Automatic annotation (TrEMBL):
Residues 31-67 form the YjiS-like domain. It comes from Oceanibacterium hippocampi. It holds the Pfam family YjiS-like. It comes from the Bacteria. This is YjiS-like domain-containing protein.
Length: 77
């Protein structure tokens, strides 16, 4: 089975690709899945940044918590 695993070294993503008798197709699929996850994080953080104080209160977050979250890089969970 081919697997792409996301790890972090010094705050930057590092990828480890492990193949055990499988096709490049699986590696490509895993990579596309990883990119989709990154895009989703980026979009969620953009939406979070647009919320006003009342909306943040409704979901139980402070502006400081939001600022902390939106400062993260797209690869950081």
């Amino acid at each position: 089975m081919t697997m792409i695993r996301e790890t972090y070294q010094g705050g930057r993503p590092e990828f480890r690709i492990r193949a055990a008798g499988n096709t490049i197709y699986n590696a490509g699929r895993d990579l596309l899945s990883l990119i989709a996850r990154w895009q989703e994080r980026h979009e969620q953080r953009r939406q979070l940044a647009r919320l006003d104080a009342h909306q943040l209160h409704d979901i139980g977050l402070t502006r400081g918590e939001v600022e902390h979250e939106i400062e993260k890089r797209f690869w950081q969970a």
